[in-house]
Amino acid sequence: MNDLFETQQQVWDPLEAVNGSDQEILTAAKKREIKNILKSYVGTYDPMSELIQNAMDAVERRQTAGATFSPKLIIKIDLCENSFQVVDNGVGFTRDQFRAFIAPNISFKREATTRGNKGVGATYIGYGFNHLEIRTRNSEFKFQGQFRNGREWVEDTSGTIHRPQVEVTTSHDVIFDQIDQGSSFKIRFGGKNTRPLNLNWYQATTPEQWLYLLLLKTPLGYLNLENGVVSAVAFDLIVVDATGNELSSRDCAAKYKYPHEEIKASQRLSDVKTAQFQAVERGKDPSAAIDKFRNSNGIYEFYKPKDVLSFVRTLSAEEAESVESYNVHAYGYFVYSTSVWDHLNDTKAELRKGYRVLRGGLQMANNSMAQGDLITIPLSKNIGHQNQTHVVVHFSGAEPDLGRKGFQPELRTLS
Q1: Cα 106 vs. chain centroid, distance in angstroms?
Q2: Over the stretch 164-179, which tens digit does the pLDDT of each residue have?
Q3: Domain count, the chain
């Protein structure tokens, strides 16, 4: 009995105990962990967002290190091959980083200085699909290979599909060969439980159409509500349509598609108010002073944290503290009629009929990146205005939930 009591009292590390367990048990546990990560990705733009987010972070880390170069991304969408590729001229990987980065909860990013640091994005692109091509090169390390059947293995319950491994390949990639260093990731879509199943679902066949989608739905739409400084990262966008015809847009700016920059006759609220104040100072009718604004399509404004605290009087003490601690900035655009959204999406963006990529709603963002889908703006009266209003609320240093599901409930409520 004494020996048994002493054994029960021994100190041990639970993680080391797990590592000493049966390999079959460990594999099943790891598969469950990966499957839970995949379940947290529910959006049709998630794979593009993850590849672009990692690429932008890579070139920005190279900039931070003091390198002299022109940060660049090259994005290729091949509708014939059903693939999405992102090439960057960033830092690339070291050998140790490369061997571990697909594993769950492994991240080499610095918190608060990058767009993501949860260590699940690479796991998602590796195991969320069945064909991932990987290339990386710098002065320390170079590699090219592929990772196949990740999703099939995760979904397999019979034990007949072997755990996938990274395989070395010898093929060349014309785009990757053009950069001095960096990385390339290409996902080929298709297969059960993958989203999207086919890139033709978006019905976008030109660079111009894809620009609207990517700048509004992925980190390419760089957001800076604080001072308006744009991202230093430029990108080329190449689209191969279903017939094999290749079209491209070069040196595109990574910048969010603000409605006031896309819709003609949009006025800034502060300009309207200034015109009224100046009229009053001159003894004129302030209502007549804004006649020139009356045929506008919409009105917009940017708001700093002090503006938010000043205008929104219903904030609790905790919410007011969050506004300051997360450096909350906001942007609002009100369009006179929802038909303006229709015209923009159908005529200017030329997206498929009825698809409203830019419309009324609340877009939450963190660390210069839009996060999640548009949220319906809750109104208790004048409900129709929720479809006329496009709002962006940007946090600095907030941590969205696992994957790309969105923000914590308290931050959603604050927004």
Answers
A1: 19
A2: 999 999 999 999 999 9
A3: 2
- Per-residue exposure over 270-290, b if at least 16 CB sit within 10 Å of its own CB, e if not: eebeebbeebeeeeeeeeebb
Q: Is the pLDDT of residue 384 over 90?
A: no
Considering the domain architecture, whether residues 50 and 166 belong to the same structural domain is answered as: yes
Domain-ending residue, one of 154, 174, 201: 201
Phi, psi of 86 (to 5 degrees): -125, 125
Question: What does the pLDDT look like over 119-136, one tens digit per residue?
Answer: 688 899 999 999 999 999
Q: Could you tell me the residue range of the domain that residue 113 belongs to? A: 39-70+83-201
Kindly report, residue by residue over 141-158, the tens digit of the pLDDT.
999 999 999 999 999 988
Whether residue 76 lies inside any domain: the answer is no
CATH (domain of 151): 3.30.565
Q: Please state, in angstroms and rounded to a whole number, the distance separating the CA atoms of residues 160 and 156.
A: 7
- Does 396 lie in the same domain as 275? yes
Burial group, residue 320, by CB count within 10 angstroms (0-12, 13-18, 19+): middle
* Position 233 in a domain: no
Instruction: Kindly report the three-state secondary structure assignment for every residue of the chain.
Output: CHHHHHHHHCCCCHHHHHHCCCHHHHHHHHHHHHHHHHHCCCCCCHHHHHHHHHHHHHHHHHHHCCCCCCCEEEEEEECCCCEEEEEECCCCCCHHHHHHCCCCCCCCCCCCCCCCCCCCHHHHHHHCCCEEEEEEECCCCEEEEEEECHHHHHHCCCCCCCCCCEEECCCCCCCHHHCCCEEEEEEECCCCCCCCCCHHHHCCCCHHHHHHHHHHHCCCCCCCCCCCCCCCCEEEEEEECCCCCEEEEEEEECCCCCHHHHCCCEEEHHHHHHHHHHHHHCCCCHHHHCHHHCCCCEEEEEECHHHHHHHCCCCCHHHHHHHHHCCCEEEEEEECCCHHHHHHHHHHCCCCCCCCCCCCEEEEEECCEECCCCECCCCCCCHHHHHCEEEEEEECCCCCCCCCCCCCHHHHHHC
